[in-house]
UniProtKB/TrEMBL annotation:
A single GO cellular-component term on record: plasma membrane
Record has Transmembrane helix as a keyword: yes
Membrane topology of this protein: Multi-pass membrane protein
Phylogenetic lineage: Bacteria, Bacillati, Actinomycetota, Actinomycetes, Mycobacteriales
Catalytic activity: ATP + protein L-histidine = ADP + protein N-phospho-L-histidine
Keyword tags: ATP-binding, Cell membrane, Kinase, Membrane, Nucleotide-binding, Phosphoprotein, Transferase, Transmembrane, Transmembrane helix, Two-component regulatory system
UniProt cross-references to PANTHER family, sorted A to Z: SENSOR HISTIDINE KINASE DCUS (PTHR43547:SF10), TWO-COMPONENT HISTIDINE KINASE (PTHR43547)
Localization: Cell membrane
Segments traversing the membrane: 16-36, 173-194
Entry-linked Gene3D superfamilies: Histidine kinase-like ATPase, C-terminal domain, PAS domain
EC number: 2.7.13.3
Cross-referenced PROSITE patterns: HIS_KIN (PS50109)
Name the record gives this protein: histidine kinase
Length: 511
């Protein structure tokens, strides 16, 4: 039950619970180790103390002299008791090699036999041991007393009761406990701060919820049909599969320098901005993520839609042209009927056939010279559209396009339709004319559109190809020349302009 409730906690709750458990165990274990270390240090210090005291007394000439003179108890008992009281140890016993005590803390024990191990000292070695004697368990040191000839004539034993050591050790408990409690309190405060930060960053979600969210997030990134790029102050954080496809990005990490130029500069807030690359027409949206400094960029492919829109625009132009011609034909028909009613049939026939002959002659010439039906329809439609706008649009006699064309019908419509539209928009209003030439020989396909306008300088012409620049709106959203440049660059052709004879834009695509 406890485990089930724990797994229902948020990630922050589970992490903090585990941290509190680990910190508590560390503090408790550390305090225990500190107590054990303090005890071991106390025992080592006690051994060193009693060994030092016993050695000092054994090396004192007065000790050996008193044993030799036979008045060891009278001479040494006051001295050992004085030293014992000043050093706060349990006992100092001086004895003969046969264990007979000369001195003892309890005078009644003098003359009795010393309890404990003395064999190493009888062989001239000092040593320490833990032994239970008449006063209780103690840590004691035994040091031999030598005469002038180096013989062992007595032994000095000094000891500290383990009970006294335990009391000293217990006095350190409060300090160690206070330090441990302080460390635990500081750790818990830090853990609480971490918990609040984790709650903010994980939105209070559980680990399984975060895992499911990540799995869904990863699946969506791979399945979504829009390109998605996430940028932050350090560069590109994320690029999904569709974005790599649309922007021609290779596998592996992506840097800002790898992105197209229009994505390298931060520009949040962009909505449905059109950009033309060498292969595609892209719709870009950008938005900043609140409180994170990150920016999300979405990229949609509009290439096929743009082509369909171009074809639809051509059909619309043709439909408008047919509608205008129908309206004009109705006017002419009324005129012819009226002239017949007036009894002037010969003149009525002349009026009826004059415009029909001109129109039919243009249709026949274009149909014979141009083998692409879509291009014929486009030129006829643009001619009618230009006539409505009062612009003289002419297709030169040099225009000749065989069946084997370097561009598809849709590409021809895109290139020529946009060039003619730009020319009609840019021609001089006082002398509006547009001239179109489309030829193809063994070397290349050439499309030339001239108009009576002033044209664009080199920088403006380059900018128009790169960003869909528009001289009409000035807002950077024109696509005409950019779409033309896209088709031309795709086929390895050239796009140039010349202002020597009005404004002339030329497209050359090698075969």
């Amino acid at each position: 039950m406890v485990a089930d409730r724990l797994w229902r906690w948020s990630l922050a709750g589970q992490a903090i619970a585990l941290q509190i458990l680990v910190i508590t165990l560390i503090v408790v274990a550390g305090s225990g180790l500190a107590l054990l270390d303090a005890r071991q240090d106390g025992d080592a210090a006690a051994e060193a103390q009693v060994l030092g005291i016993a050695t000092s007394l054994a090396d004192s000439p007065s000790t050996a002299q008193a044993i030799i003179d036979g008045d060891a108890t009278a001479t040494l008992q006051p001295v050992t008791e004085l030293v014992r009281r000043h050093t706060d140890i349990a006992f100092i016993t001086i004895m003969a090699p046969d264990r007979t005590r000369y001195t003892h803390t309890d005078p009644s024990q003098i003359g009795g036999r010393y309890l404990g191990n003395i064999e190493p000292a009888l062989h001239g070695e000092s040593f320490t041991e833990v032994y239970t004697g008449t006063l209780g368990p103690s840590i004691r040191a035994v040091v031999p007393v030598h005469d002038a000839d180096g013989r062992v004539i007595g032994l000095v034993a000094a000891g500290i009761l383990q009970q006294s050591l335990a009391e000293r050790w217990r006095q350190q408990w409060s300090v160690i406990a206070a330090v441990g409690a302080g460390a635990l309190a500081v750790s818990l405060v830090g853990v609480w701060g971490i918990r609040r930060r984790l709650l903010r960053q994980t939105r209070g979600l559980r680990p399984d919820e975060l895992r499911v969210m990540y799995d869904h997030h990863d699946a969506i990134l791979h399945a979504v049909s829009e390109g998605l790029i996430v940028l932050d102050r350090n560069g590109v954080v994320l690029v999904n599969d569709e974005a790599r496809r649309l922007l021609a990005l290779g596998p592996g990490p992506v840097s800002v320098a790898d992105l197209p130029e229009f994505l390298q500069a931060a520009d949040p807030g962009v909505r449905d901005e059109l950009h033309v690359t060498d292969e595609r027409v892209l719709v870009v949206n950008r938005a900043r993520v609140p409180d994170s400094g990150s920016e999300v960029v979405t990229v949609r492919d509009r290439t096929e839609l743009q082509g369909a829109l171009g074809e639809l625009s051509s059909l619309q132009v043709l439909a408008d042209s047919l509608r205008a011609q129908a309206h004009e034909s109705a006017n002419k028909l009324h005129t012819v009927i009226t002239m017949v009613e007036m009894g002037r049939p010969a003149e009525a026939v002349a009026v009826a056939t004059r415009e029909l002959e001109l129109s039919q002659r243009l249709v026949d010439r274009l149909s014979e010279a141009v083998s692409e039906p879509a291009l014929v329809a486009l030129l006829l439609g643009k001619t009618a559209q230009a006539d409505e706008r009062g612009i003289a649009l002419s297709v030169t006699e040099d225009t000749q396009l065989p069946a084997d064309v370097a561009l598809t019908g849709q590409e021809l419509v895109t290139v020529l339709g946009n060039l003619i539209d730009n020319a009609m928009d840019a021609c001089d209003r006082d002398d509006p004319w547009v001239e179109v030439t489309v030829t193809q020989d063994a070397d290349a396909l050439r499309i030339i559109v001239a108009d009576s306008g002033t044209g664009m300088d080199a920088d403006e012409f380059t900018r128009a190809q790169r960003r869909g620049y528009s001289t009409k709106t000035g807002d950077g959203h024109g696509l005409g020349l950019a779409l033309v440049a896209q088709v031309v660059h795709r086929h390895g052709g050239t796009l140039s302009t010349d202002a020597g004879y009005g404004s002339v834009v030329s497209v050359v695509i090698g075969r």
